Amino acid sequence: MTAAAERREIVVGIDPARDWHLPLAWATDEAHRRGLGLRLVVAVPPPHHARHVDDTPRTTALRRTASEALAAGTDWARERHPGAAVATDLIEGLPVPAIGRLSHRARMLVLGSRHLSRTAEHFSAGSTVVPVTAQAHCPVVVVGNPEHITQQPPYMVVGIDGSESSKAALALAFEEADLRGAALRAIAVWQPPVFLLHDEEVALQAQRRMLSEATAGWSQKYPDVKLSHEVPIGHPVEELAEAAEHALAVVVGRRGRGGYSGMRLGSVVHGLLHRAFCPVITVPAEQEPSWR
Questions:
Q1: Is 190 helix (H, G, I), strand (E, B) or coil?
Q2: Which residues pair with 233 in a beta bridge?
Q3: Which of 71, 138, 243, 288 gets the most CB atoms within 10 Å of its CB?
């Protein structure tokens, strides 16, 4: 896997058919905070992908629109942060694998979102959020709503469940909170099973112990980040979304290897992509198979 030190760019997918200002603002600010380069990407499907007999005029028009969006985005990013190192890529290929392949060398991928319902997300031909999030080799940031920068003091939320991916999410969450001067709420949601074999308080104590062990040592590494532990009872998606209602972002780990279609994306991550009203940062635990 490419070392983090070699991942010198924040990559943001630009969709010329939608408003790209929110995801580009997030990506530009993040690149500025980290001293990284910014790469704007538009993927144009190849002519043979369409069902038209002669798709050349349509493809030419799409490329022209893509070039104009990249130029406009570059100007806008440089106005937001003068001196920003901005590069662009106009890639011929289907958006999901084209953008996904860039995750091998990106520090982060940033995408916009329309807050589609789950059914609409699965059947939307232009959707990239779910499948890219499911397989990317780097953290993916989905920006469907702006950061809540007016909340004082500012805070971020990280979901912890004891998995390796949640440990990776915790590491990134501390890093992000430190960069932003924000507090961090570490949350381990306990969802009562249908049949509880032990006393509820025993189960909650086990959850609190897991959360304490997962976060041990991080406050020494990031002494300026105010950390709180929370163990709410309920459904993980609902509890995390409610906690992040006024947050700068919510950070969660992604377990396992998502299918190409994204249909196997974890239910908590998938739910937050549609339920959370702040940027959602998804962090993989380990390297995934190469993109097709």
A1: strand
A2: 190
A3: 138
Residue 188 and residue 204 in contact, taking contact as beta carbons nearer than 8 Å: no
Dist. CA 41–CA 55, nearest whole Å: 22
Burial zone of 55 (CB within 10 Å; 0-12 exposed, 13-18 middle, 19+ buried): middle
Counting other chains too, the contacts that 264-272 makes at CB distance below 8 Å and 24 or more residues apart are 264/134, 265/130, 265/133, 265/134, 267/237, 268/159, 268/236, 268/237, 268/240, 269/133, 270/118, 270/130, 271/236, 271/237, 271/241, 272/237, 272/240, 272/241
What is the tens place of the pLDDT at every residue in 111-147? 998 654 444 444 343 478 888 998 899 999 999 888 8
In angstroms, the CA 55 to CA 51 distance is: 8
Phi, psi values for residue 28, rounded to 5°? -65, -45
For residues 44 and 254, what is the distance between their CA atoms, to the nearest angstrom? 28
DSSP letter assigned to residue 265: S
> What is the C-alpha radius of gyration for the chain, rounded to an integer number of angstroms?
20
DSSP string, 71-117: HHHHHHHHHHSTT--EEEEEEES-HHHHHHHGGGT-SEEEEE-----
Q: Pull the structure tokens for residue 85.
A: 């190192």
Structure pTM? 0.87
CA distance 39 to 21: 14
